[in-house]
Amino acid sequence: MSIIKCENCGAEYSSELSVCPYCGAENFRRSQKEQLDYLKKKKEETEALYELPSKKARKATRNSTWVLIFAAVLVVFVTACMFIISGINNNNRIKKREELLSLLEEAYLKNDYEQIGKILDENEIYQSSFDKYLDLSKVYSAYTYARDGLKDLDNSFIQFLSEDELADLIDPDLERLINALSELEKMKTNGFIKDEEQGYQYLKGLIMEIFNGYGISEDIISDTISSYSGKGSVDLSRIRNLVIEAVKR
Q1: 148 Cβ contact list (under 8 Å, min separation 6)
Q2: Is the pTM of this model over 0.70?
Q3: Domain residues of the chain, as ranges?
Q4: CA angle, 37 as apex, 33 and 41 as ends, to 5°?
């Protein structure tokens, strides 16, 4: 197995793969090798038939030769058609990918994460070349879910709940926000990709706006994030109590 360079996007990948895993362009060299190997095999079979001693075998060989010639011509024709169709499909895939990237970037520059999520969902996008939009869209989804859950808190309702009931009601949304901020900080630590910093600043601002509305400082959030393991073990009691106090006021 060797490593080859994609003629379309320049990415490196295994020569055993039939298409580039990054842009979907076809590995034409592999397809050509398979066809040449097939023709070589048929040629060897034809030569083997000529070695048979009997006239019947030679007659059968002559007949087989014509069949093999026809088959070889047919294979060449089919291969040529496949190359043409594959080239057209590959160009269509590349064009579609570029169109989607353009639409996503346009929405990204406008901080329109509703549109970004819609484009990603409608086109079932999961490729690595879309990571910026996938990562930020995931954070935005967590933010909107938590925002909608917390905005319905009302003192006339929560005053009748026990501490455990309040934790069950509020903690899931608080953890979503903490997790979202944690993911944003990972982006910053790992290095922003493709101007990702704009999305980081915008989404962090939206999430901190929620916390600031309950009188929760960024220092408190930073302390909570530093203890967050991503496995539900984070202690949310401090910020939960601040949320409850703010709602009761």
Answers
A1: none
A2: no
A3: 28-109, 113-248
A4: 175
Query: Amino acid identity, residue 95?
Result: K
Full pLDDT tens readout for the chain, 249 residues:
688 777 777 778 777 777 777 777 777 777 667 767 777 787 777 766 655 555 454 555 566 677 778 777 777 777 777 767 666 666 777 888 889 889 998 999 999 999 999 999 988 887 777 888 888 999 999 999 999 988 878 777 778 888 888 888 898 999 999 999 988 988 888 877 667 888 899 999 999 999 999 899 989 888 887 776 555 566 788 888 888 888 887
The Cβ-side half-sphere exposure at 227, using a 13 Å CA radius, reads 12
